[in-house]
């Protein structure tokens, strides 16, 4: 690739090399535009004349885009509920302090305005360093791609979660997999005292390419997943083996479990959110206002980090979720361009006057 | 550049140190050091803390090492190597007569060509052509001028002599013939019968084509000129055969002289002699040499008349030689022979003994007369010197010739102007006064007008200053340099340097080769550390060529020693102008941008990584993928800057040549000052902050896709990297003033290459990699609208401050180059004339100094010849040639006429 890119230049220069060699006979240098440095050239000058209109145009365009972005962003509805369980009056206080598995707690919240459009449900963690160098590298992409050799022989990079105490290979190996987020949520709409379950859809929450190309289960004809994974052990912190992650949907098991895939796409920053479910069923395009109950299966410890856990409900637009930054940045920068334009205009006018007086 | 590098090394180390310290501060909380989700292995836990800290420090160093632009060195070397071809390729520096163009022996110094402050030039062969023409001879005070001048109209017959003075009497006739014979015999010229194709001899060929096809060859062009001259006066030296020298005299009969001894020339004696035996059996000793070495040995002859003529000729810039003879009796000859033989056979101090023998033999001579040979000024030498002066360079002429000859040449080559006040520092003066007094007097004179202004003003060209020229000779120079016993030599040197600093032109005559180097060294070591350039053609210039920062050899007639020992070799002196004003200027601005840009782009590159450490627990997590880290300097951003540094032209070539003042725009390394360096660094830091925090806020707890999916850390890094590559490349695009198709190709090509590479890199599961972290990251990013908008915004934001700064600087404090760019734009029909102010382009002091330094010249003659100058009482006028461009620059005070 590199060579292909350099090739035209090499050829270009080598043609001159050959001419240099020829020059031994006829010393006279070539009279070409290149050798004489007289190639035809466009010589733009960055003068006020060009830049001024450019500033105003950019300013206008950016302000326009900024307004559009802000409006879009403001139309997006977003709810955030923390359920870490810090503080005595918190519903999940007991679960947070008792290390019992599958501790349940509930969270009640009210949606004041009905939400139009499809709603996405995220879980969020704070102060959680998924981007730590050691953590990030503690995975084996070859194992996750379903290569049978690496299933039984995970890479060294997975340490300390490469093999268990009995020296059995861990599948999936590594810190990332081991720390897989294992809280579960169920959502109910409080319809006049009657709890109506809001259906949650867990499909297509991970990248399509992750699900279909990058990750795959090891294949072995005529055997089911549990047979394939025989000889490996589940990660130490997991309660269920990898081939049994989703009891309801047998196709959503193994390395291609979507929740697992979402977790494996490590977040860039220590405060992050990850897509959990999309709201489907009756509420897929409209969530009425009213009271909701979120039932949490509390497993994931964050208290010591110290971190927080959140659930977020958000609609999305073409520009994704709620993000004021981009709109504001466009607006501010657009106006700045305008101001700059005016300053330049003044400078320009003044300079002009000085020149006139001069001559 | 190296100082900048040290700064960056300090930045690198401090960055790594800061991060290491912060890491341990941050990790003091055990939940941060080892959270439950990210446990350490047993061996990691047990590692010594100090050792861990040290490896962490090293890891940070590795992570940030890109800030030291290693690739810069490679690129700089390539730029220098490839860039030097433009000098070799330059057609304007090609000499048809020699059949050779400029040669580049080292490519390390290209940019120094743009920084030259002192030019030391040889005279003979450098300023002049070293193509000698016999002009006249003076025999016993009668002047003979061969009226047929070599080029073209050679009169047939052998009677071409004009008697200027009274007609010679009978005895005059005799000494006249003796004189001619002496010149025909006293030389070491060889005759080559067949035609040669050697370019150097072509000129001679033309001169001698009237008679035979023979060519005279000698190591000294003067000798050839003399023998040629004699031929035109009727005495033709035919050949040396069996130690008999054959001369064809005016009656076309052949005279034969047996050559007995040759007392060869050396530069200490400054003369040579031959001993011949005529057919009558008489022994003659003929001696020819510099006037100063002949006159003291003469006992008879019309010394006064000859001396007057010699001095007259010297003032006119002619090279003079005196001829004397003596008759030897047979026994005298034999004793001479013995003397010489014993000296030649001496085992110890042979040279010294030979010199003594020569000294003894060459005594009691009878003066015959003197010759005058003209060495013409090289084509456009005066124009070149004037341009160099205007470009703020100080030109020193260092020559071995006598003062009057050299001074005349200096006037002719416009090194000295009519209004130049000449300061003399010669033996003549120091004989009258002590060196101390002379020096102090001169420095007083110099300071009278300038005062303390001198150092700041633009190299003596500012309008308040009188133009000074200094003449110093070798003997005085050595006494200036010589440490005296009372230790005041440093003082002398300082005073001398101070005087020199205030002189725009200095002439050093009667210089020994080593003294030339000494002078160069003196200036080089002075406290401003100016860049010096030495130019010369002969072996005697080699020492100064080697001593100066930039050595330039002229491919002259005195062999190729100078050309071989130099950094650059050019065919003619006039090519120096283009070399410095165009090539030097270009190389300098190119390399300056190259260096600064490299620092800038690596700051942009690495600073986000540094910032990222604050958000990933100081864990040395790289922000970018390995492929991006590796290829950033190698292929994404390398070619645009390399090609920029090869073909950028901020101002047209013709303008640079026409307007030597532009050279001062870049003097004193002004594009690589700390201020610019800091500006670039801060720009880099600002851009890096924009990249990183722009992406940070864009990614802050939100999804960027319309399907609700989240991006990971690699998308974050790729977004920053994409903005980075585009910004850095577009920044270069903004700096480019000369957009050829190559620039378009590499700039847009590089960006395209980045995109194509990223698509490919993320588009395939690469089987040889054991991680697939970049898989589809780039495509996913491009499928997101906000990512696009973010990229566009961040690129614009990071480029804007630089644009604003450029525009405001251009408007308020434009450099001369920028004014010219504006003017160029204006003159084009589709230019933005309504915006660019129509103003004079030179700042006022430029204009004034321009007028002031243009003496009123009579520019109607087009002859190339150096004409007569009456020098001595500072009242002279020059009828010298003026090329067309000269007369133009004479009339142009600004640039309006010359563009």
UniProtKB/TrEMBL annotation, chain B:
Q: Where is the composition biased (Basic and acidic residues)?
A: 848-860
A molecular function (GO) held by this record is: ATPase-coupled intramembrane lipid transporter activity
Q: Could you say which EC number(s) this protein's record lists?
A: 7.6.2.1
Q: State the name under which the record lists this protein.
A: Phospholipid-transporting ATPase
Which UniProt keyword terms apply here? ATP-binding, Magnesium, Membrane, Metal-binding, Nucleotide-binding, Signal, Translocase, Transmembrane, Transmembrane helix
Which residues are ATP-binding?
A: 122-124, 223, 265, 288, 319, 399-401, 510, 516, 540-541
Q: Which reaction does it catalyse?
A: ATP + H2O + phospholipidSide 1 = ADP + phosphate + phospholipidSide 2
> Is this entry keyworded Translocase?
yes
User: Which BP terms in the Gene Ontology apply to this protein?
Assistant: phospholipid translocation
Q: Which cellular compartments is it found in?
A: Membrane
Matching NCBIfam families, A to Z?
A: ATPase-Plipid, ATPase_P-type
Q: Where is the secretion signal located?
A: 1-18
Binding-site residues for Mg(2+), renumbered to this chain: 122, 124, 537, 541
SUPFAM superfamilies of this UniProt entry? Calcium ATPase, transmembrane domain M, HAD-like, Metal cation-transporting ATPase, ATP-binding domain N
Q: Which InterPro entries match?
A: ATPase_P-typ_cyto_dom_N (IPR023299), ATPase_P-typ_P_site (IPR018303), ATPase_P-typ_TM_dom_sf (IPR023298), HAD-like_sf (IPR036412), HAD_sf (IPR023214), P-type_ATPase_IV (IPR006539), P_typ_ATPase (IPR001757), P_typ_ATPase_c (IPR032630)
Q: Which GO terms describe its cellular component?
A: endoplasmic reticulum; plasma membrane; recycling endosome
| Cofactor(s) the record lists | Mg(2+)
Q: Tell me, in one coarse class, where this protein mainly resides.
A: membrane
